[in-house]
UniProtKB/TrEMBL annotation:
Classification via InterPro entries: Homeodomain-like_sf, RNaseH_sf, Tc1-like_DDE_dom
Residue ranges constituting the Tc1-like transposase DDE domain according to the UniProt record: 106-220
Species this chain originates from: Tilletia laevis
One GO MF term attached to the UniProt entry: nucleic acid binding
Record's protein name: Tc1-like transposase DDE domain-containing protein
Length: 254
């Protein structure tokens, strides 16, 4: 990022924070807020004492808001909850996420390096008691890979119908509709196989699970996703998540 002229408010705030022991000069320099040389060059001029303004005080002082703005310019991938944690450390206040927002007509600039990786297909199962049987393969899933996944990964977790985990609900992807998959599920493992109506994501709670997984992957800001990233994201799904998604899809009553 090109050199930018720092406002005196930003420099004063940085000097105050270091004097209070809230942050270190190395932290400010490492995160691109203010360099060590700039900090020490301006510290000798002393801190300005400003007259209090009349009227309702700002929730965030202007200098703190400018500090956050500079931080976002240096690290545009920061999330709001991370900014809130930083603000709590430097200002001693805990605020709602809605209070931290961008300047009007300004968008965050986030560089995304172009890296063409290999296609990674990920799959997992969702029940009311958790997300399980996750698997990732290079390339795309076909009928053979899906059959192998059911046989080796998913169906061993299930029980014969009508026991717990005994009903397998699939969407209408073409690879799901093979005769040998029905034989595997119903005749070999004695489970019940059901298919969702076409175009019915509201009845498919795994859609919400993968929305959370994708959000977790985006948060990691990795240029290329590997299987370990996917497995870590699956582990972030809680029992409360699963029960809520199953309830929203109509599979849990009461």
């Amino acid at each position: 990022m090109p050199n930018r002229r720092l406002s005196l408010d930003i420099i004063d705030l940085a000097i105050r924070l270091v004097a209070e022991g809230t942050v270190t000069v190395s932290y400010l320099d490492r995160n691109g807020i203010i360099s060590k040389s700039t900090f020490y060059r301006h510290r000798i001029r002393g801190l300005e004492v400003k007259r209090k303004s009349t009227g309702r005080p700002r929730l965030l002082p202007y200098s703190v808001a400018e500090f956050l703005y500079e931080l976002v310019l240096r690290r545009p991938a920061l999330y709001l909850d991370e900014l809130r944690s930083i603000l709590r450390r430097i200002n001693g206040r805990s605020i709602s996420l809605s209070t931290v927002h961008s300047k009007r007509s300004r968008n965050a600039v986030l560089p995304r390096p172009y890296a063409r990786g290999k296609r990674l297909s990920c799959i997992a199962a969702l029940g009311i008691d958790g997300c399980f049987a996750s698997r990732a393969v290079q390339g795309s899933f076909n009928e053979h890979l899906f059959y192998t996944y059911l046989k080796n990964d998913l169906l061993p977790y299930m029980t014969p119908f009508p026991g717990p985990r005994s009903v397998l609900v699939l969407d209408n992807a073409s690879i799901h509709h093979s005769h040998r998959i029905r034989i595997l599920v119903e005749d070999i493992f004695n489970c019940k196989l059901e298919f969702l109506p076409p175009y019915s994501p509201d009845f498919n709670p795994i859609e919400r699970a993968f929305a959370k997984i994708k959000a977790s992957l985006r948060r990691q800001n990795a240029a290329v996703v590997d299987p370990n990233h996917f497995f870590e994201a699956v582990r972030d799904i809680t029992l409360k998540d699963c029960e809520g998604w199953m309830r929203l899809a109509g599979y849990v009553c009461g």
